[in-house]
Design goal:
By secondary structure, the chain is of the alpha/beta class. The chain contains eight helices and 15 strands.
């Protein structure tokens, strides 16, 4: 499993409730964790039994050392990481509300994106799947073309989390498109089905999936119809940070297992829901713990 995107050093402060502007509150707990969409998804895929490699850029600073150690600790190979002598490794300051599990993120990035020339040096030998974050579209489109030309049998997936200039160039080539509700709404869609039908028309993907928060998810396989999956709600929402990354990882895992799209998405919705009742994205099992 090859994942291409950013890795972030997250500093997470848990608070009783989200503070008002100019209010001073005390953090109830603090943790430093690996973050970034692809990095989180790879951490989950590693737990699900896949050998994973991360590809992205880092600065030459202490934060990069911590990220590389965390990636390795989650079972991700990092030999393809590109260290950039200028700029700073991405970091995020996160407030996590214990009242409802919501999270507010302030992200700092001062680092060049991975280039297609960098990716050209990455070996595709033995790769069973390549997953890209939908960022830096012009360069990422070149990376996707390389995979399609050199390893046409290897499935490619792309996460569409945020609208970015030129992101439509990423709709041709991937077998799987994984969109967020925020991405759909930025395009003017308030209904998951209408969004998926539009996305399928504009892409050649075999499967389009959108996560829709508390409404669950929906998917559309080429030649089929939109199907919706209700959310799995844990007994208590503890931490929504990274739920979308867990969802994406579980969809990919299901498809790699040969599951039908419907079953892969159902299992992904459940795992993302379980994650919301659990702090962090490192999860040892896919079923809720039994009492006692």
């Amino acid at each position: 499993m090859l994942g291409v995107g950013i890795a972030v050093l997250d500093l997470v402060d848990e608070v009783a409730a989200y503070p008002a502007e100019d209010e001073e509150v005390r953090a109830l707990a603090r943790r430093r964790v690996l973050g970034g969409n692809v990095a989180n998804s790879l951490a989950v895929l590693s737990q699900l039994g896949h050998a994973c490699r991360w590809v992205g850029t880092l600065g030459e600073d202490p934060a990069a050392d911590l990220i590389l150690a965390d990636l390795a600790g989650h079972g991700n190979a990092t030999r393809d990481a590109v260290c950039v002598p200028v700029g700073a490794t991405p970091t995020s300051a996160i407030l996590l509300s214990r009242a409802n599990g919501s999270r507010t993120i302030v992200h700092f990035r001062d680092l060049p994106e991975l280039s297609a020339d960098d990716f050209a040096e990455v070996s595709l030998e033995g790769v069973a799947w390549v997953h890209f974050e939908g960022r830096n579209p012009q360069e990422t489109a070149r990376m996707i073309r390389r995979v399609r030309e050199e390893a046409p049998e290897v499935p490619v997936s792309v996460e569409l989390e945020k609208p970015r200039p030129g992101i439509e160039t990423l709709l041709e080539g991937p077998r799987l498109l994984l969109a967020s509700r925020a991405f759909a709404r930025a395009g003017g869609f308030e209904d998951a089905g209408a969004f998926l039908e539009d996305l399928a028309r504009r892409s050649d993907a075999a499967l389009c999936v959108v996560a829709w928060g508390a409404q669950g998810a929906a998917f559309l396989a080429r030649g089929g119809r939109v199907q919706r999956v209700p959310a799995y709600v844990p007994r208590r929402v503890v931490d929504t940070l990274g739920a979308g990354d867990v969802f994406n990882a579980r969809v990919i895992h299901g498809l790699l297992q040969g599951l039908p799209a419907a079953e892969a998405v159902v299992r992904a919705v459940k795992l993302a829901g379980l994650k919301c009742g659990h702090p962090g994205v490192v999860m040892a099992r896919e079923s809720p713990p039994t009492s006692g």
